[in-house]
Design goal:
The structure is a homotetramer of 336-residue chains. By secondary structure, chain A is an alpha/beta fold. The first copy, chain A, is built from 10 helices and 15 strands. In chain A, 58% of the residues are buried. Chains in contact: A-B, A-C, A-D, B-C, B-D, C-D. Chains A, B, C, D: Involved in the oxidation of myo-inositol (MI) to 2-keto-myo-inositol (2KMI or 2-inosose).
Chain lengths: 336, 336, 336, 336
């Protein structure tokens, strides 16, 4: 078991979190280079690591000595360039979602992989590594509730960060349900509709929050997603799959129930880092193990592309108010 | 406390159930006349009662001696005529839903009441008497979760009777959510859309089951209803109201949890008579008490009309595949 | 279906509640006489009834014209005399628990019934009529979790009335679990132990509250009962039966779940009248139906006696701090 | 961040699991030596590690080059000798429970630590690292439910291994609740009683399973533990703490709820490795971090000793059938 040298691109909240996780909870890996346009920040992060180099240029970090794999946690628009650099060096990549902000960028990433003739890029759709989602996937695959008819999804955040836009509800939040639905059902999304109630007065001025996003799939299932990023009461990700012979629900679990003053209550996680802490850990561990063998063991570039295509259709549906079909290129052989 | 004499019109499953309930669980009332086109059936029901007369003609039963109130449980198309007979005699009426199969009939009932200058007709939307719905209504009225944004509804039956049609999913089943949404939110429905997954193979050939019905309200809320009348696993009516500051869920209660063979399980009611037994009892008790004073203390003819209008728009939306606005006449003063 | 004339003895909280219930929710019965030592109170109650006579002497009420059955809701020490009066007239009796405050009184009641050669007395252990308890009983009888090994019981009240004593925790509260255990398991109690934590500071000075009461049964099962009558947070009656092949839990049901301010909460009933409203209704309906036929269809005098004997042993165990065997007379043939 | 060299003593189920966990999920640590009396087994384990030496003598492994910390997962009787070897070399120790099979051995370990003047030994009571237990501890410490009065504990295994004895129900199973109760309440145990129902027919011949173990604490709280190691339906660890103003329950969480065939069900974990996987990971991570600084950050030798003393009293109570006081030596200054 040798140690995998990783370059981490982007040292904001997510990037710093990954650095910490690699150090503490992932055996067999260490960070050897970090990159961030903010020179002070990247130096501070590198200083906490044993022998890691600090860079403001991602390309430099990727080609630093000892780098065997690349973890990209920079903002979405910077992903494509960093991925292409990593692919030039044939390095495995774990890229935070979205793969790229639009389908065109994702297609270019896939072209690069096809030229290499191998998949190296994994997208950070970490719900696939969540224990509850994994059990739901197993149940569906085993036919435990028959052919799936509906996925009823709730995706709630206590509040949204100041930079959040109406578009990001779809491209940054619902994109998780887009990938989860595609993965759980094994079907592509074929159309998107968006219904918008009068926005919550708790949402910042101008933000269309909440919304109900309706996805139709190639296999005739319907996915409804309530996205509500200023729900106030916590972070909740729930999903009920309804099949021909039963239903299965995840995300309802409450660990501690307190009875007091006439109420029986459980705490609601306030943040995705609590709810999905284990999934992030597991994602990283499995990627490290696969990366050491040059394999991808998780959502790949095709998954990133499909999510980008659905997001684009979702934005069109949100703006036009009408159901919008999703068009996908033919799936290249590499991704079958 | 004198005893209220009731004529029961229709002695099928629902009618017979009401007769039994009046006898056993409702003090201060007794059945004095029963009517049903099936002469043998109505005679058998009357035989079990002390001094009740049997009729094949509803009008005759309504004008039988001692009748002070009328409970109508005949098929929907027979409702209007029976109600009008009862109104001619100024008798309080409890009419099973739907008030009438179409909005036009409901308007004629309302006209008759307006001529009398008083409301006498109550519609059998018994969810308004269910303890859980009552608590949800109180919470919403008290602003406990802020302005409502969504109602997520699930309405499931283990299996549908042989005579059930695709239209009845909307006019007989979803009509309960239509009334519940109007009552809970205090808002009329303004538009309907219907999404249909590939029908379940468990549904009879030709039945479009399940469906997702989307209602928009005058106050900018969205109501999504999964109607699935062949879900196989039981009778379930659940509702989650999402407001600006919280969410409230009903219908999740499990009375007994059994741990055995690797599973922790609760029984799911197989029938609405189990889930809503108390609501039916309470509806009847409160109607008897109000009827004795010539008042209506529950959903009235306007509520029946509005439900019929939404059902009609729902059918149009289901057939056309596009969002259909709901048009209501101006609300007459009597129903304000 | 003729109407059963009932004399209600005692018009305090429980008695008044029964009078109301007979009027509104029980068909086929009416109150024809009421008795209470408080002359003003009993007159006020009678005034609200159609043609009921008011008495300060229970014996007078029991022999009033039209009395066909007797419901006793006076304080425990007054039960025996009223029951014996009713038995002299061969009238069916529904007597609130405890049948009598001590085993000797219960034995005298049983002797009176044996002289008559028939059972007429039912004890108000209404949990036997609760839907959840009924399901648990069915499950146990059907062998659904194998031979029972444990009953883990929680019996909690928000707060205790001012007159409550340390003895009453056992004789008035735990007595419900004593009967429920005997009925659920079909076994007599053979020994009692009592463990007492430092009393809660929320309990009135001098009240040993809470306590853990341990019952051993003839069939080798163990019943532990947490009795806590000043728990502060509500009224809770929960029971987990553990058998050789599984466990079954009742009393956990929450009707509405609210998510707000970081918590997911359900309301806890504040009173037994809420939690067991249906059981009280059902008890009364079934007793009325059985009384009309001169039968007992519920817990009888033997059950009242056995509960009294266990309570007596429980008091001894509580005072002495050591495990105390329960001694029962041989079960008379009438009660087999 | 240098890498901590660990010697693992014992490579049975628990030991092998720890080796795997250090490799995959714990950053900053690696196994440099393994010991097991089974020479083939220990060689096989070492072969899967990069540069670890294999030993049949624990002392040899402990003094192998690069060893900076010792993890002991051998059978209980072998613990003391291995710990003393590690303490001679002033190495931090993580020792699986029980610290030693009897209080005398634990006292000798504590004496060795006192001679060194520092605590180096941590006992593997990993419930202290479980997220739910941590939340319960926080709640209790914050006074969230007032002074604790009861802990109601359920500890169930699907089935017991062939070598399990009636004594082990107390010394190997209930010992977890003993430590959890001491830690949660911050109080020593003062007396133990044991009640035994007729053993389950599912238990192996001669095994007194299940049992109800009653612990009394120095602060006047009562702890009841149902231990049932052949319950058949899964692995369950539940705990309800009841305080003066509320109650808090853990271990009820179900991640996925499936509705099918009239039942609503959740899976029950079949094994502690599922239920407490994260706790084991966290225990190891925190110990590695603390060990690197020569500190103990978890249950220490005093905790191991107290558990052993309660277990010894528990065995006496089980054999004699009477309540048995627990005697502890005065707590040495090092452990305050």
């Amino acid at each position: 078991m040798s140690t995998l040298g990783i370059a981490v691109i982007g040292t904001g909240k997510m990037g710093a979190d990954h650095v910490r996780r690699i150090g503490r909870t992932v055996g067999g890996a260490r960070v050897v280079a970090v990159a961030d346009p903010d020179g002070d920040r990247v130096k501070a992060v590198a200083a906490g690591l044993d022998g890691a180099s600090a860079h403001t240029d991602p390309a430099e970090a990727i080609s630093a000595p000892g780098v065997q794999a690349v973890l990209i946690a920079s903002p979405g628009p910077a992903h494509e360039e960093a991925i292409l650099h990593a692919l030039e060096r044939e390095l495995p990549v774990l890229c935070e979602k979205p793969l790229t902000p639009d389908p065109a960028g994702a297609l270019r990433v896939m072209e690069a992989e096809q030229r290499l003739g191998r998949r190296l890029v994994q997208v950070g759709f970490m719900r696939r590594f969540d224990a509850e989602y994994e059990r739901l996937k197993e149940l569906l695959d085993a036919g435990g509730i028959g052919r799936p008819l509906f996925l009823h999804c709730r995706h709630r955040n206590a509040s949204s960060p100041s930079f959040f836009t109406s578009e990001m509800l779809i491209t940054d939040s619902v994109v998780h349900e887009v990938d989860a639905a595609r993965w759980l059902l094994g079907q592509e999304i074929t159309a998107v509709s968006v219904l918008s109630p009068t926005p919550s007065s708790a949402a910042p001025e101008g933000l269309r929050d909440p919304r109900l996003v309706l996805l139709e799939t190639a296999g005739g299932a319907i996915v409804d997603v309530e996205i509500f990023v200023n729900c106030g009461f916590g972070y909740e990700v729930r999903c009920e799959a309804v099949g021909e012979s039963g239903s299965a629900q995840i995300g309802e679990g409450q660990s501690m129930v307190v009875r007091s003053a006439g109420l029986s209550s459980g705490e609601i996680a306030q943040d995705f880092t609590v709810r999905f802490a284990d999934a992030y850990d597991r994602q990283l561990r499995r990627w490290v193990a696969a990366a050491a063998q040059g394999r991808v063991d998780g959502p790949d570039a095709w998954d990133g592309y499909a999510a980008a295509a659905v997001s684009a259709a979702g934005l069109t549906a949100a703006h036009s108010g009408v159901r919008t079909p999703v068009e996908l290129v033919e799936r290249p052989a590499l991704y079958l």
